[in-house]
Amino acid sequence: MDQETRTQGAQTKVEITQVAHRLFLEQGYHGTSMRQIAQKTGIALGGIYNHFDSKDQIFSEVILTHHPYYEVVPALQAAQGETVEEFVRDAAERLVSNLGARMDFLKLMFIELVEFNGEHIPQIFKAVYPDIMDFARRFSANHSELRDIPAPVLVRAFIGLFFSYLLTEITIGQFLPTEQPDKSLDYFIDIYLYGVMVDSSI
Questions:
Q1: I need a surface site. Which of 53, 142, 149, 187 has the fewest CB within 10 A?
Q2: Are 77 and 98 a contacting pair, CB within 8 Å?
Q3: Is the dihedral of CA 170, 174, 177, 182 positive or negative?
Q4: 102-138: per-residue pLDDT in tens?
Q5: Domains of the chain by range and CATH?
Q6: Cα-Cα-Cα-Cα dihedral of 72, 73, 79, 83, to 10°?
Q7: Percent of the chain whose pLDDT exceeds 90
Q8: What confidence category does residue 181 fall into, taking pLDDT thresholds of 50, 70 and 90?
Q9: What b/e sequence results for 165-180 when a residue is b if at least 16 CB atoms lie within 10 Å of its CB, and e otherwise?
């Protein structure tokens, strides 16, 4: 196979993935057929199978290709702060900003959880984990203020809390009382750093 043929094949695969991504978001996984993907891509149905063995394989490619960690991880790695609090605030704002701009991924994850029972998550985790652990090591390094909590747990709690902030902001944020609405992320950051209990020792 010559270089031009390989390049054309790679481009076709990208086009199939882009079309499938749009259809999955509009119709869900089970509501989208291989025939529809082929029609929207403008190639014969058999041409799809030259690049993907199944619709499931296309979904795997879609969810990996469109995973926001390509934007989120560099954003987290760029987080700055001389103290733990400064670092966490900067990292949290970067995480929420990047995930908030990727509503498509949130929809894909709902499809993954509801229609696939999370079966692609190990594949995603394998791709994401090394970069996340680099962030975890940076998070925990040289910060004597931190409790003795394993770095993976610190980062898991960090991602979980601010992912839940974004989800609740999208789903119920507009219905909550409007006192200091712009401060809600700050409160989540405070909860992550200090918990919800008053320090009785003060």
A1: 142
A2: no
A3: positive
A4: 888 888 888 888 888 888 888 888 878 888 888 888 8
A5: 3-62 (1.10.10.60), 67-194 (1.10.357)
A6: 120
A7: 34
A8: low
A9: bbeebeeeeeeeeeee
